[in-house]
Structure formats: C-alpha cells, structure tokens
Specification:
alpha/beta; 7-stranded mixed beta sheet; 390 residues; globular
Length: 390
C-alpha cells in the first residue's frame, strides 16, 4: 500500500513527550501492577448530576437535532456573560466578546492560526502546556520561551525578554492557576501584563482552565479584571475542570472583540458549533448553584493537604500549590526529572509527569495530579517513604 507523505508543517509538530509515559504505565498495568497514577490531568470525578440531567432533557428536544447556529446559541453566550459578571464583575457583550469553543485546547491552538504569520513570535511560558507549542508550529510561528522560576514565584520576568523578540511578538500565552506549577497570579501581575502588552503591541491569551480551583479561601483572579485587559487580550475558560466536563468538549473565549471575531471566523470554516444539548447543559452549569464547584475545590484541597503534609513528613522539601489540581515537586539533587519519574514508576509503582515534558525550565521537577482519593495519596506517600530518597 502506498505511503503518502505529510506536509512539512505536520512533520515539524512537537513530539508528544508524554506518550512514552502512557506506554510505560500501560505495560506495567498489563503485567498486573497496582499503579497509583498521578501523572495525568484528567478529572477523576463525574459530571454533577444536575448538568447530566440537563443534557438528557435537552437531547430529547427536536430543535437540537438540527445544525446549531454557526457561532453557538445566544442563550449560552448570555450565560457566559452572566457568569463573568457574577464571578468576576466583568462586563461582556454576548455577540462581540464571546466565542463558543470545542474545548479550551481547540481555542488555544486556533488562536495562533488566526494571529501568527510565518516567522511571527509567540511568547510562551516555560514550563507550560505543550499545546501552545502545537498551535505556534501549525502557524509557522516562532516561540520565545518565558522561564518560570521559583525565585520569581513562577511568574515570567518581562524584563528578561529580548527586545528583538518583543518587536516580532504577536501573542503571549499565560496560564494561572498554572499547569504544571500549581501557582496562582495576583491582580498586580495582570495589571503589569496589560501595561507591558500595550507598550509592545501584542495580544495576551490567558488560559484560565483552572479558574474555578483556588485554595485556602482565595478565588483565582481573572485576567479580564485588570483595567484595559479587553483592549489587548482574551481569556479562554473551559468547563472541563470546574465542572468535571472534560469529555464534553465545551469552552469559551471572552475579551477583545477583534480577536473573538477571528476565532469565530476560523470556526465558521471548521465547524457548525456544538450539539445544542451540550450547549444547554453548559448553560445549566454556569447559571445554576455553584455548590458542586465548592465541594470539588474542598475535595482537591483535602487531597492537597494529605499529599503535601505527607511528603513534608518524610523530609521532602515541597511547596503547597495555591490552585489547579497539580503539585510541582522538586527532584532529588542530581537526578533528572525523567530519571526520578522512572524510579517512582518502576520501584514504587507511582506515575508522575517529568517536568522536562513541559519545557526546558521544567527540568528538575515532576508534576503530580491530585486526581486520586486521599487513601491512595497516603499510600503513595508510604511508597515514597520506603524508597528512602529523602
């Protein structure tokens, strides 16, 4: 059978670093090993029952069996507007400042197709979500990495960026609460970001995937809460994490009207919006009681406390995350992230994600997901204790 060749752009896509981890875990599970899998980013709880019920009811309605409006139903956009007003006191125009997305990942990849010409620069956090890289590569753009260092609270140091790159920059990606570090950003940081973006004339894309998950009584800050943010950027919010709807593939972008129009135009040529019943269920999630979100955050915070306190008790110098459902843990001195991840996997049957997979600045760390129950996390601590690495 003839083997057809991919085009050059496809061959230049970043390699899936974590595919090897999935393969390693799968092989051990096949052999019967009891793996505590803390290496994934997939919520382990079911979608709240009232959201599922909304989908079931909507699926029976004949109007949703037809093609939906290209840019989504007005009722979902209105729900987004009400959600942002209620949660962040941010005013939005439902027609001009809201775009319904096929999952947050889709929007984060599409934005580079919309805004980057070949050779244009995107400023990308390092470590960061690897699909930012995918979108830039598909657009033929170039990445300027922004190292996130512990000494700067895992926030980018804008003063360290090269002037030449800033002249060519069209986009900046940010993500707080952060994957993989688990840190949150204060409003002052976003104020600084708005001023910096205006000075250098680029668009900010804030990935707010974990916006619903903040700990110790602190609510994560929306980028759009900073004055002037809509002038220079957008925020992408997914229902995947806040409502355990990862498999539903529903998200939205909000903010700068010209950028929202680009995303809408791109999707006009790619899709005919989401199944209407999913849109109705998404509106239910946004507009109904948020008790389910409060309970979920409480669950993650309990897991965080069990894990971090347990690891600290065995002498591992780890920092507690302030948001997301990840912890960012330093490797033992002299050990690479992949070496340490392999030791945990093969000697303790604990899967974690090597930090190097999130960028060069991720080396020296592993990412751990708070996606097992407290008893399993306690067991993970006991297994690590028995390795006597700390």
């Amino acid at each position: 059978m003839k083997q057809f060749e991919m085009n050059q752009t496809m061959t230049e896509l970043p390699k899936q670093y974590f595919a090897s981890l999935v393969a390693k875990v799968g092989a051990l599970v096949k052999e019967g090993a009891d793996i505590i899998n803390l290496g994934q980013g997939n919520p382990d709880q079911p979608t709240p029952a009232h959201i599922v019920s909304s989908l079931k009811e909507a699926a029976e309605l004949p109007q949703y069996h037809k093609y939906p409006p290209f840019r989504g139903y007005p009722f979902l956009k209105e729900a987004v507007v009400e959600y942002y007003k209620r949660e962040y006191d941010v005013e939005l125009d439902p027609e001009k400042e809201v775009c319904i997305l096929f999952g947050g990942k889709g929007g984060l990849v599409e934005i580079s197709q919309c805004m980057l010409n070949k050779g244009d620069v995107a400023l990308v956090p390092d470590p960061g979500y690897p699909d930012y890289w995918s979108g830039v590569a598909l657009a033929g753009g170039r990445m300027e990495m922004m190292p996130l260092k512990q000494e700067n609270a895992f926030l980018p140091n804008y003063n360290a960026l090269q002037e030449e790159s800033l002249k060519k920059a069209k986009l900046m990606f940010l993500n707080y609460p952060n994957n993989p570090t688990g840190v949150t950003a204060p409003k002052e940081f976003y104020d600084e970001t708005v001023a910096f973006a205006k000075r250098h004339d680029f668009c900010v894309v804030h990935d707010f995937a974990y916006g619903g998950i903040g700990f110790d009584g602190h609510k994560p800050v929306s980028f759009l809460q900073s004055e002037g943010a809509k002038d220079i950027g957008i925020e992408i919010y997914t229902l995947s994490k806040t409502y355990n709807m990862a498999g539903w593939r529903v998200a939205f972008a909000v903010g700068n009207a010209s950028v929202i129009e680009m995303l809408n135009l791109y999707q006009d040529h790619m899709y005919v919006s989401l199944f209407g019943a999913i849109q109705q269920a998404a509106a239910t999630a946004l507009l109904s009681s948020q008790t389910c979100v409060e309970e979920l955050v409480k669950k993650y915070e309990g897991r965080r406390n069990v894990l971090i306190e347990g690891l600290q008790s065995i002498g591992w110098d780890v920092t507690s995350p302030s948001g997301s459902f990840f912890a960012w843990l330093p490797c033992p001195e002299g050990m690479s992230s992949e070496e340490f991840a392999d030791i945990l996997l093969y000697k303790a049957h604990i899967a974690v994600a090597p930090g190097r997979g999130f960028g060069e600045s991720g080396e020296g760390y592993v990412r751990v997901g708070l996606l097992e129950d407290e008893d399993r996390l306690k067991e993970a601590v006991d297994r690590i204790r028995n390795l006597k690495l700390f």
